[in-house]
Amino acid sequence: MWTRRELKERGKAAFKANYWRCVLVALILMMVGGASAGVAGGSGVSQGLNHVQQEESAPDQQVTGDVDIVVNGENIFDTFQDSIEQAGSADASLFFVLLPFILVIILIAVAAAVAVSVLVINPLIVGCERFFSENSRQPAGLGEIAYGFEHGYGRVIKTMFLTDLFIILWSLLLIIPGIIKSYSYRMVPYILAQEPELSGREAINRSRQMMAGQKWRAFVLDLSFILWIFLSAITLGIVGILYVSPYMEATNAELYYALRGDAGEPPYAPSDYGDAADYNNQYNGYAEQGWQENK
User: pTM here?
Assistant: First the structure.
């Protein structure tokens, strides 16, 4: 049975042996996966709320002064009130005229975003995970990130679309079921990248089988990076880009191989990483003996 320490040490060794390429591919994953969107969005919402509160407090003070002036001239107030009502009526009419066009533009934007996600981003994710899973065996080249476009492109986009759809549908019920299902389908990109003989449905079922009884342990594995993520946040993402993100991605690739070994298939033996001699010395024996015991 795999342990967090073993996976993280294997992932760290593989990542350091091919440092800059791993950093670049992990950065691509962060960009296409929107890893920084939550932080930026949260900051923007917070600033927006503060701005709104300031604006709301300012008009209240202005209205008090205006009322004192307007009270002395009731006719001026009535004229001003009529102009406001007329302007509001005109704006409302214009809004209802433009509403169909606004809805069409929104639908086109949503459709374009979905198309880009399905046709470009998802195959790119598969290619990036292919890079990290190959890098577990030997230093991988950047050409691996094109794997999703060059090998079974139709299978990749269909399977990844169904995976995303299933997670969204489960999330509509409650947040927790959506999170649980996201762990069930966690291995789908790795399976698409490493087991091309499987169909899309078989890849999804395979991921569910591999993650059966492993979801909580995988969650704890993710949680073990919490201090690194916090350090990344206080350094404005610099540590995340240069270390934490590629470290986590390399560890996730090791998780795939661990679960694949537990499923009864021999994992790839560690390759000669050159500079990472400690990796070979420590884990060659584990690869030759430990995996056989876990079958």
Answer: 0.70
